[in-house]
Specification:
Two copies of one chain form a homodimer. Chain A has a single domain, classed as Glutamine Phosphoribosylpyrophosphate, subunit 1, domain 1. In chain A, 32% of the residues lie in helices and 28% in strands. The first copy, chain A, contains five helices and twelve strands. Chain A has a five-stranded antiparallel sheet, with helices on one face. In chain A, strands 5-6-7-8-9 form a five-stranded antiparallel sheet, covered by helices on one side. In chain A, strands 3-4 form a two-stranded antiparallel ribbon.
Chain lengths: 239, 239
Amino acid sequence: MTYCVAMALQDGLVFAADSRTNAGVDQIATYRKLHKFRVDDERLIVILSAGNLATTQSVVSLLQMRLNSDRKHLFGVSSMYDVATLVGSTSREVLKRDAGLNQGTVDFGSSFIVGGQIRGEQPRLFLVYPEGNFIECTPDTPYFQIGENKYGKPILDRVVQYDLPLKQGAKCALISLDSTIRSNLSVGLPLDVLIYERDSFGGGRHHDVTSDNDSFRSLGDAWSQGLREAFAKLPDMEW
Amino acid sequence: MTYCVAMALQDGLVFAADSRTNAGVDQIATYRKLHKFRVDDERLIVILSAGNLATTQSVVSLLQMRLNSDRKHLFGVSSMYDVATLVGSTSREVLKRDAGLNQGTVDFGSSFIVGGQIRGEQPRLFLVYPEGNFIECTPDTPYFQIGENKYGKPILDRVVQYDLPLKQGAKCALISLDSTIRSNLSVGLPLDVLIYERDSFGGGRHHDVTSDNDSFRSLGDAWSQGLREAFAKLPDMEW
């Protein structure tokens, strides 16, 4: 499994992903799920992936290989909408190629969160379904999750609003990941976090949170402590 | 869907369940999932149910109908272990009867949390799987969940310990239910909460939390507020 979360906030975009891949509990490995495509000063595209690793890797490889080809590619299209379309159609292409003989016993499907900014547009964020169609993030619910999303959702629902500062958004994403890691063995460190400031057209601040990151550990401990304190302060039920 | 949670704590047992049943989002109804069987001053048995409503209702009906029969029944057996066995075998009996023609398109399975105390024993708590086998709660992880369990698990993992007072346990169960209700439409009010004090052999304190329960609403609001405050107090990441 995997857990990825991304936010489209007023000041820019936040992306966060774990890196655990597993086929059963005795076959786990570390694979990055945050992929960055960048043309300096012109566009930044970030793709988070969850689902069948063979499918997601093929999709990302094909997108990468075609960057210098005659086909439509991530650096050639002029809007983030076209980027999402491209990810969706590449995902369908891989599924069509690989899932042909599958009798339905293996799930070949993958989901993607696709976000970034191309000069001339606002920063945009899309969720691409395994079927290749997609939806776009709006200020009413300014985040997307893919993978093992339930444990980490309550904190997002309570904290993430469109006007949340980027730094706070990243912190909330880390808390959401921490809650998921504590409850589900198939989600694990290291984490990739990328913070992109609106109209900066750079590579964003990309952080690698490994298991020896004291700051992340302190954050998780402080959150546990804060939760317990908040619980202790709750009013009694008047039955 | 459904969400039920129960705890076996030092001072006794806590049971909590929502009451929403749904088949799709346009066919929802209220059905209680907490069932009580009691012999005053001698035994209290509580059964929480989740899964296929036809199955769970049949299981509870059969257990009820047989109370005065010659067959093994809930008031005749001498341990909570036998109670769990009885719930498991009755569940298998119903599945065998009803799921025969099913081609695997409908899930007939149900899970049960079975707890209580019979004179001569400690209070005990069991989780009965759809297959009819079961596990017992131990002090290391003193709670069980059935149904839509992920949203409400992080708070349980952080707060519930064997020596938690019963009142606090009930409050934590309500918070866990509140988080689930906020995130999943298929879990809803009213809630059934039952607090059983060890060796009391009464009916326990049974509370009905309806949507006009101000105390529950205040609890949920205070929790949201507490979470936001805890989040605001978190240290910044040192990247």
